[in-house]
Amino acid sequence: MLSVEQRQELAKALEVEMDKTKAAITAFEEMTQPVSPENAIGRVSRMDAIQNKSVAEAALRQARSKLDALEAMKKRTDDPELGICVKCKQAIPLRRVILMPQSPYCVNCAS
After folding, report:
1. Is 0.85 surpassed by the pTM of this model?
2. Who's near 10: CB < 8 A, 6+ residues apart?
């Protein structure tokens, strides 16, 4: 179980990570704009641009999913079960909770 200080540290870490993820989402949204059929772009360059757009779309989906998980974790900061692995019921080290706040599992159970 996490102490009050640990919960405050986690809340700050969540805010920082959420800000980073929101910035990444904004960047990915810009990169996923439709590829316009310009005359100046060659066929290979256009195919490359479409491929890059697909990669950015996948990264955007992943970033949105991460943000959803971070927001869910933020809502749980007062939960007495926070910091306890949902599978094995052992305490999750604070550093793991901060590094992977979206994961409700300890390192062993996440593997």
Report:
1. no
2. 2, 77, 82, 94, 97, 98, 101
